[in-house]
Design a protein that fits this description.
With 231 residues, the protein is α+β, with helices and mostly antiparallel strands. It contains four helices and eleven strands, in the order H-E-E-E-E-H-E-E-E-E-H-E-E-E-H. Helices cover 18% and strands 32% of the residues. The strands form two sheets. Strands 1, 2, 3, 4, 5, 6, 7 and 8 form an eight-stranded mixed β-sheet that branches. The relative contact order is 0.26.
């Protein structure tokens, strides 16, 4: 079983929550809530617009062989749709405690990116494929750790039972889709390392008394999803 992909880069160790934000957001429109219904999302993926991803490749920070992977972007069909995300366990050697989509490295037996994403979601959070309707994929996102990641967007029935793998997933939570598709919540951060400036998006979400800090590759793929939806 593959470990889930986690956002951003592994070295050096730092807490992005302690870094300041760069700027105060952008004057871009939010995606209309009418475009976030199940029927509207199906139409969008059935006839996708002409668009260009904002982020296609992170600056490389490690030299290793390229590997293919996929993540599931699960949109839960509640009255107000949400996106299901995971928090990695603290005992993992890399990216512990970070927010991620269910997903991981492609296996040779996987038929395609959707098969990888569905298999990993089942292994990590117990999501039954019978409760999932795959809409399509977004363009590949290349991480600084040399993973070529395909985000697979899907609709998930709200009654789907979940069973997190305790070795990998500390928590499962949901964030309103309308929050993630509003660029007013897309913040930028920057970090200087080995003479290079690295920047990424962060989308901190206040979940009751807890802040869910979405950043790095996860936030980058969500930003591309916003661009797809607003195009």
């Amino acid at each position: 079983m593959n470990k889930p992909l986690a956002p951003a880069f592994a070295l050096p160790r730092f807490d992005p929550r302690e870094l300041p934000f760069v700027g105060q957001g952008e004057a871009l429109p939010a995606v209309a809530e009418a475009a976030q219904t199940a029927s509207a999302l199906r139409r969008r993926f059935a006839a996708p617009p002409a668009w260009t991803p904002e982020i296609q490749r992170e600056k490389k920070f490690i030299e290793r062989r390229i590997a293919r992977a996929a993540v599931l972007v699960p949109i839960v069909l509640r009255e107000q749709p949400t996106v299901l995300l995971t928090e990695r366990t603290q005992q993992l050697s890399t990216h512990s405690g970070q927010v991620a989509f269910p997903g991981g490295r492609t296996d040779p037996d996987d038929a395609d990116a959707a098969a990888t994403a569905l298999r990993e979601a089942r292994e990590e959070v117990g999501l039954d494929g019978a409760a999932v309707e795959v809409l399509g994929s977004l363009p590949a996102y290349v991480t600084g750790s040399s993973f070529i990641v395909t985000p697979v967007v899907a609709l998930v029935q709200p009654g789907a039972r979940l069973h997190p793998n305790p070795a990998e997933v500390a928590d499962i939570f949901e964030v309103p889709l309308r929050f993630l598709l509003d660029p007013a919540h897309h913040r930028r951060q920057a970090f200087e390392w080995q003479g290079q400036r690295r920047e990424w998006f962060a989308m901190p979400y206040q979940d009751g008394a807890r802040t869910r800090f979405i950043w790095g590759a996860t936030a980058g793929m969500l930003r591309n999803f916003y661009r797809f939806m607003i195009a």
